[in-house]
# Entry
Amino acid sequence: MMQFLLNTGSTIEEGRLAKGGSKLSVDYTQECAVCEMNPEDYEAMGSPERVLVSTPDGKHRVAVYAYAGPSVCCGHIFMPRAIWANVVVDPETFSTGSPLYKGSPVMVEATEEDVLGAEDLVHKLYGRGR
Amino acid sequence: MATCTGCSLLCEDIEAELSGGKLSKVKNLCRKGHGHFQSAFSERTVPMIDGKKVDLDQAIARAAEILRSAKSPLLFGWSNSTLEAQNVGISLAEKLDATIDDTSSFCQGILMERILSGSIPTCTLDDVRNYADVSIFWGADPSSSHPRHLSRFSYYPRGDKRQKSYEEERTCMVVDVRMSATATLCKDYLFRVPPGGDAEFIEAILSVLEGKIPRLGDKKKMIELGGLLKKAEWGAIFPGLGMIYSLQDNMEVFERLIARLNEITTFKVIPMAGHFNMRGFNELLREKTGYINRVSFEGGAASHGPENSVVAAAKTCDAALVIGSDPLSSLPFGTARALARLPLIAIDPRRSLTTDAAGVVIPAAISGLEAGGTAVRMDGVKIKFEPIIKADLPADEQILSRIMEAI
# Structure
């Protein structure tokens, strides 16, 4: 298990699918339930197909697809801003009223866990869904 | 011509035919806008109470009942609604003594406040197209979030004073923690900062502008940046969430940088608002209460503070109305779960995790496609649009008016 800094943000496909009303689709899961890692970090982790991203206290965790991408520095990961990333974004606002969507420390490890779609993830987290 | 409400650029030059359940003959839409227009035909909501289909009147009556009986309701969303709907929404909040907040609360609010109060100089995107020779995307990735920003305004177009444009006259720079899609367009001018390192980066720029050797980062590159900033004739900075989350309540350091740059040359700032009418809500609420977001009308007077932010209020309110927003997807898990456990009313044209969790769902017409109205572009320009499809669904404004009448 390794510690990283999580950066979340837009991708154009996330925008296209979200604006297109497809947030509950398989395409959206494939675009957003992902974790981009620096190629060196990815290799050091054994080039896993999926990783488990968790909060440092281990209370919240989410399985996502992993891939090596050149855009992020070593020690950082990038996840599109969507429900998967928000499972591990710290809701603490330190009296600013805004959570830390960029720069949250997270733990990452290879996993065999399945990547859940948005509805299944909500069902698992809240015990409710459609 | 249609107006795209897919983001806060509000592109007014869209040609599209939407008929027979299909989008055809499209001109000028970006990929995001294309998705937005196609959404007229996918995952539309229907009126529901507790997961069962009902008629619209029943859903509105139930929403009114929930809000009437709540002691401290929260009204949240607003950035994807027209000014007309926002106006009714603020009146509804006043009538209910409710808390009202929008997405700027965890987005561009902290900077927008300074833009609207005049403490940071701003301009229109048309000014950028006509005059800017330097555009800086700071913690922003418009190629992903506002795909036509560079082609309509900030890099590629020919403007009154910039006929040679990007080939000779414009420089585009990126300050980011990663090589974003926008950064790939101007790799030589990517200035990487570590997460949370923007304040130190700004201090280093200020040192360079004073002719000192910066203590931070690649000294040669920082000196090069200082030179480019000093040589700029007319610069524009577009801060995105990367900068906002990094600086948080330390925005004063950015104000100092802009003040210093304007002693040397001209630099303007336009916040990269995400949703199509976030700025409109901020302007309207400010006009009515003096605050741009996070307002509570409890006790009859407007009060403001982080305790009224959606993130805090989700845990203290006893009912919530969410309009044109999907906080269950976009807020951190702890906050989203608190909202999901409340009596929740969702007004939205499209199905989402929030409409799935809501006890009451009220379908609305899509602004710009099925409903007309007015919105404020990210740079403060007011844009009026007409619907391009005839739909039987009520607009947000009509739904809110009916809820208000029923309370």
